[in-house]
Amino acid sequence: MRSVLVVLFDDVQSLDVTGPVEVFNGAELHRPGTYRIRTATLDGTPVRTSSGLTLVPDHALTDGRGTAPHTLVVPGGQGTRRPAPDLVAWLREHGPRAERLVSVCTGAILLAEAGLLDGHRATTHWAYCDKLARDHPEIEVDPDPIYVRDGNVATSAGVTSGIDLALALVEEDLGRDTALSIARHLVVFLRRPGNQAQFSAQLAAQTARREPLREVQQWITEHPGDDLTVESLAARARLSPRHFARAFQAETGMTPGRYVDRVRLEHARRLLEDSADGVEEISRACGYGTPEAMRRAFVRTLGAAPAEYRRRFRPAPSPTH
């Protein structure tokens, strides 16, 4: 039996709470006796979430019950922008006693204020990564992944990534079959790889204001294997290559080449995770031309060759009995 304690506070983000709770509860329903889930506020009184829902806790953090859970979950929300000193003090005292510390979204701010992320690699919602790094230079803040595991500390990005992290923890605790059953019930992916970017290439870049440039962005996304040189894209936008390159960067925040690189890498990752296509076939489909060109792009960006990436992140088939 693993105890899971979820900390509640005023203006908490409701999905940061209910997402992981639904995952852990799904595991308990699937395999009774595996998790005991409780929620608690400092004084045991109900709290109002940022969306207006009222959550009634099981007990108070200060009543002495459950101060050393197996998994301590700290959700995020508007309430983390003005952390209550008493809550931070409780986390500072009792957080180190948990076997596993987990934050969802800006819950990482509370863990940081309590000194529990010092010396760790961590992430949070993309909009607050710079603030977390600026306010707490002793933390190695990684703004890209949807979740980060560093020892017994696990931090996740915005909102729904808490579900991905919870599924990964259940898979670690109880195996893939249980996590897969929960994911199917919740109608979500088994788990997105933790190092999957918070933003897709399309979201990471700003949407161009001018229609020809927006059309080019869409074309790149839909045709990663085509000729995507600046000259070719400029002709599609009916601009000179020099004018196109300047306008594209000004309106999207990245160069055409950088945008193409991100789209191709993202497409290749999806094919490696979701298809049985070979590396050579995928490299052609994504515009790399050769497996070696794709390998260099993967090693440079992800630190792993395509074959190794597939071994790490493509779900293995469940054993048959």
UniProtKB/TrEMBL annotation:
Keywords: Transcription, Transcription regulation. The keyword Transcription regulation applies. InterPro entries: Class_I_gatase-like, DJ-1/PfpI, Homeodomain-like_sf, HTH_AraC, INH-QAR. Coiled coil: none annotated. GO terms for molecular function: DNA-binding transcription factor activity; sequence-specific DNA binding. Residues 214-312 form the HTH araC/xylS-type domain. The keyword Transcription regulation applies. Pfam families: DJ-1_PfpI (PF01965), HTH_18 (PF12833). PANTHER family: ARAC-FAMILY TRANSCRIPTIONAL REGULATOR, HTH-TYPE TRANSCRIPTIONAL REGULATOR RV1931C. This is GlxA family transcriptional regulator. It comes from Streptomyces phyllanthi.
